[in-house]
C-alpha cells in the first residue's frame, strides 16, 4: 500500500513458512455453536467455520507486511498511476475444483453477485467501484469513481472468485447446505449439519506450487467439531477429542492448563505476542432505540462497569482496559489530542462535541468494589437526560424505569455481566440477561433486535473501506450491517472516507487516530479489555516454522510430525 514490497517478483516463498513442510495428517479444532449454511457471503444462515477457505482470491496478502498482496488467481496486476483503476491478468492455470478454468467473466460475475445479492457489507465495502470491464477472457479491469485511493486495488485483490457456471441456476440468497464448488487448497469432504465439517486438501490443487502457497495448507484434513459450550469444548480438548485450542478465558488459562497431559508435555502451552490492533471489545449499545439516543445515558451506564474490580477479581489481572477502537497499536489515539489530529479534525470542529478536543480517559476505580463516585456522576448525567431517581427507580419524566437487556450467547459471560448489573441496580436501573444460542444471537443482531450486546470489533493494521461499513450512515439501518449500534454521524462518514485517500502511512495513521477520537466521544460502546497475545494449547504432534508471521498466528503454516516422519525430517 505504501513504499516497496518486501518480496521481489521472483520470490519463492514467504519468510515465515517452511517451504519443505511435509503434507499429510489431520488437524482437528473446535467451533462453538452450530451451522446451517455453506454460504458465507449472505446474511441468512450461520455459515460453517472455515468455509471461505475453499475459494481462492485474486491476490494473497503477506502476513509480515502491513498491507501487501501478491499474485494468486491473478498472475499480473496493473494499477493506474492515479489509482483510478486496476487490471488483473488471470493465471491461465487457474482452475475450479471441477477443472473449469477461472476467467475474467467469473471475476465480474462474482463482484456483481456480491453487490446485488450478498451481505450489505459488500455494497458499502466496494462502493467506490464505478464499473467492471472484461477486457478479454484472461483480463478484467475495475474502474473507480475516485482517484488517489491506494487501498482499492488491494481490497479488490482480496475478492474470492466464485464460479459463474455453478451459480447461474442457483439461488445465491438462499441459505443452503449444498456443497459449493470452490477453487482453493481445500474442499468440503463431508459434514454433519451443526455438528462437524471436514475439509480435504485438494491433491491436484492448481496453485499448490505458487510462491504464495509454498509451505502453507499442509494437512490432508481439517476438521471442525461443534460444541454448544466452551467449557465442554475445553474438557473435550483435554481428553484428546481435538488438537488445538485458542483460549479466551483468563480464569481457565490461569487455573485449567495444569497437571495431567499439560505436566507430562503431551499438551504444549504457549503465549505468543499479537502485534495486530486489538480493536474494540465491549458492550455495544443499540442507539436506534430511544432510550439510548442521549449520549448522557450511554456515558452514565458505562461509568458503572468496574473494569478494575473485574480484572482483579475475575480475570487474575490478565487484561488491559481497552481505550481505543484500535487498541494496542500505533493507530490508537492518546489521552491528549495531537497536533496532526487537530489539523485533520478542524474542518469538522463545529459539528463535534468539545470532548473530542479535550483529554480522553476512562473512569477508574480502586478495584475494591467501591463505585460511589461513579454512581454520583452517573446520576448527574442521567438527570441531564431527563431521568430522576425516585422510589429506588431511575425514572424518566413519564415515570418509566430505565430498563434494558444484555443479549449473550456464552453462559460463561454471565459472571462478568452480573456485577455490572448490581452496580446499575444501585442507581435504580433495571436490567436482565437473555442467553441464546449463536444462531439466534446472530439473527437478533442482524435485525437490530437487542439492547446491548457484548462483542469484539476486530481491526487490521491498515484500516480502509471497511470503516465506512462499520460506522457509516448508509449502513446504519441495513439488515445484517456491521454498523451494530446504528451510528450515523456525517463527520465520521467523511473521516472514514478520508482514510482511503491518505498518501502516506503517516497520514493514514493520523487520520485513523482522529476517527478513533471522535468514535470514543460517541460512547456507542462500553470498552472492556484486551490482551496483546495469543494463548494457545495443542497436542504435541505438530511442528511449526522457527520464524512466525508478524501479523498472524500462522496456524496455516503448521504441519504434522507424523507426516514428517513418513516423508523424512522437515525443519
Query: How would you classify the helix and strand content by structural class?
Result: alpha+beta
Count of helical regions: 17
User: Level of helix content?
Assistant: 25-40%
Low-confidence stretches: none
Overall 3D form = globular
| Main pleated-sheet profile | 5 strands, mixed
Q: What Rg is obtained from the alpha carbons, in whole angstroms?
A: 25 Å
Number of strands: 24
Quote the average pLDDT. 95
Strand content: 15-25%
Q: What is the distance, rounded to the nearest whole angstrom, between the alpha carbons of the first and last residues? A: 32 Å
Q: What's the multimeric state?
A: single chain
Question: What's the arrangement of strands in the largest beta sheet?
Answer: 18-17-19-13-20
What descriptive keywords fit this protein?
single chain, alpha+beta, 5-stranded mixed sheet, 4-stranded mixed sheet, 24 strands, 26% helix, 20% strand, globular
Task: Give a written overview of the molecule.
The protein has 571 residues and is α+β, with helices and mostly antiparallel strands. It is globular and about 75 Å long. Helices cover 26% and strands 20% of the residues. The protein has 17 helices and 24 strands. A hairpin with a 5-residue loop joins strand 4 and strand 5. The strands form 8 sheets. A 5-stranded mixed beta sheet has the order 18-17-19-13-20. A 4-stranded mixed beta sheet has the order 1-10-9-8. Helix 10 crosses helix 16.
